[in-house]
Amino acid sequence: MENEISLEKGNLPGMGWRKAFSIMTGVIWLSYCMIWLFFYADGYGLLQNLGIFLLTGIITIAANAGIWASFGLRFAPEELRRVAGWRIIASVLTAFGAGIFAVAWLLFYGQDFNGYQNLAVLAVDLIVFAGLQAAIWVGIKKYAKDDWSDWEQACH
């Protein structure tokens, strides 16, 4: 009983350094944003600055997603981990593709269009990304666990 892992208290192995990493990346990103606004933003247009913030935000989220995804996969059933492998890689690639497109659009092409046109382009980018994610993950349900009672008990 003494060595039992408790989800309620959050004392899972490997969780502590992941929490610290998430906090530190958030602090570093916010610090970067403040430094950028004070010293470098004047040389760029609004859309270019938005692109810079989007790019740095994507990097921050990607770093955190990587460490937390590996943590979460430890608790998934073996069969689910096996079939999720290519889906995770495809999801990461589509996320980077959508993010790179959005950043490139804002940095290099956005200033030639008005705000509504830029918003429409970014909305289409998001819709394409969401559609690709749905296509990638649509068949995973059959590998998922139908009985979640042990998970629910651990959480209460």
Number of domains: 1
Q: Stretches where pLDDT falls below 50 for ≥5 residues?
A: none
Fraction in helix: over 70%
State the separation between the terminal residues, measured CA to CA: 16 Å
Q: Could you spell the SSE succession in H and E letters?
A: HHHHH
* Mean residue pLDDT: 85
* DSSP, total strands: 0
| Number of helical segments with 4 or more residues | 5
Content-based structural category: mainly alpha
Strand content: under 5%
Spatial extent as radius of gyration: 20 Å
Q: What is the global morphology?
A: flat
How would you characterize the largest beta sheet?
A: none
Describe this structure in words.
It is a single chain. This protein has one domain (15-143). The chain has 156 residues and is an all-alpha fold. The two termini are 16 Å apart. α1 (15-40) packs antiparallel against α2, α2 packs antiparallel against α3 (78-109) and α3 packs antiparallel against α4. It has helices at residues 15-40, 46-73, 78-109, 115-137, 149-155. The model has no long low-confidence stretch (mean pLDDT 85). The chain is flat and about 50 Å long.
Name some characteristics of this structure.
mainly alpha, about 160 residues
State the gist of this model:
The chain has one domain (15-143). The protein has 5 helices and no strands.
Annotate the secondary structure layout.
Elements lengths: L14 H26 L5 H28 L4 H32 L5 H23 L11 H7 L1
Helix pairs in contact: 1-2, 2-3, 3-4
